[in-house]
Amino acid sequence: AQSVTQPDIHITVSEGASLELRCNYSYGATPYLFWYVQSPGQGLQLLLKYFSGDTLVQGIKGFEAEFKRSQSSFNLRKPSVHWSDAAEYFCAVGGVRGQKVTFGIGTKLQVIP
Amino acid sequence: GAVVSQHPSWVICKSGTSVKIECRSLDFQATTMFWYRQFPKQSLMLMATSNEGSKATYEQGVEKDKFLINHASLTLSTLTVTSAHPEDSSFYICSARDFKENYGYTFGSGTRLTVV
């Protein structure tokens, strides 16, 4: 069965500092991986996705993620965090040929001045 | 890019009544849509997969008679919470896949349901 682990439930970073959100997955084949962001009371917005090719994926809002098959990881990074990045971030796996997407529990990001 | 519209964004209803939530793909056709439920401070849990022109596929533990799903067209899926109770209060989100977007799933903005 597919699963996603986000080990950090809550992270606090200073504005301007770098950010890395961790994601580990379990999937029976080559995974399709996603990162979504959710602002309070809002729906989810796709930041980036990986399904093949270059293992370093660029997304919107200056985010990037690197797929590491050997570590079963798909960590999200941003070199310099802005206050507007405060939100909840979800890593997800699956979706191959229309199959369901499984989400991690989410990491809540707090940005301090 | 692909846009999914969900309506209403919030609704308050009395116990015992039914509530319908709509999910529309605005600029693409979606043969499959997904309905998720999100409890406070928790992740999204898939409730069911909505298939255009056929019955929905429910995840284990989800009452299909409680959560009625209809996918009558390629751009509209509805979720009806029947005989709602306070424990049905939650955040419901739909998603659809635009195949032109290569496996990316677009989500609606969600519906906050409060049953009083």
Task: Explain the overall architecture.
- The complex is a heterodimer of chains A (113) and B (116).
- Chain A is an all-beta fold and 113 residues long.
- Chain A has no helices and 12 strands.
- In chain A, strands 2, 5, 6, 10, 11 and 12 form a 6-stranded mixed beta sheet that branches.
- In chain A, a hairpin with a 5-residue loop joins strand 5 and strand 6 (44-50).
- Chain A binds chain B through residues 32, 34, 36, 41-46, 49, 51, 90, 95-96, 98, 100-106, and chain B through 6, 32, 34, 42-44, 46, 49, 93, 95, 97, 102-110, 112.
Defining key terms:
heterodimer; A: 113 residues; mainly beta; 51% strand; B: 116 residues; four-stranded antiparallel sheet
- The overall pLDDT of chain B, averaged over residues, is 89
Structural class of chain A: mainly beta
Distance between the termini of chain A: 41 Å
Tally of DSSP β-strands of chain A: 12
Please describe the biggest sheet of chain A, giving its number of strands, its sense, and whether it closes into a barrel.
Answer: 6 strands, mixed
Low-confidence region ranges of chain B: none
| Tally of alpha and pi helices of chain A | 0
Largest interface (CB within 8 Å) is between: A-B, 22 and 21 residues
For the biggest sheet of chain B, the summary is: 7 strands, mixed
Instruction: Give the rounded overall mean pLDDT of chain A.
Output: 91
Provide a concise account of the structure shown.
By secondary structure, chain A is an all-beta fold. Chain A contains no helices and 12 strands. Chain B starts with a strand and ends with a strand.
